[in-house]
Amino acid sequence: MVLIIVLIVVVLLLLFLIMQYNGLVRARNGTENAWSQIDVQLRRRYDLIPNLVETVKGYAEHERETLEAVVEARNAAMAGQSIAEQAQNENLLSGALKSLFALSEAYPDLKANENFLQLQEELVSTESRIAFARQHYNDSVLGYNNRIETFPSNVVAGAFSFKQAEFFEAEDEAQGPVEVNF
User: Fold this and answer.
1) Kindly report the CA angle at 87 between 86 and 93, in degrees rounded to 5?
2) What predicted TM-score, i.e. pTM, was given to this entire model?
3) Collapsing DSSP states into helix, strand and coil, what is residue 107?
């Protein structure tokens, strides 16, 4: 009888550990999937930027510095390795894009250009998708990190070396309006 009780306790303990481990794996994979969704939207943004820059070039040839800053920011954003580096580079790119859109105010013909308007709308839509994907990612990171830090799953997380995930944080300067002086 004692052997049966011990066996039942061991089986229940093993089932508990398996459920905790599988829950942590699902949470980690959900976080990685959420990051890949950000990556999909960022790739879409990177593909749109060269077309937008080429459209603007025809109207604002002497605004080369702004156009080059957008291209440089895009290239830096594409090269980001860690989540923190990617976030910093994306913030720079967002600022450069705001400057580019501010140029349209100085060029009425550009504002009326159908290609520019279409590309601008695509980028605005993409920025919204990126914002949503970032929020989803941060929500996934929060859930995953909470599982790693709370009892009893923190015991299993520590035993199997689960590491906390990084949040995707925007810098304050990327969130405000951009001033452009001509």
Assistant:
1) 90
2) 0.72
3) coil
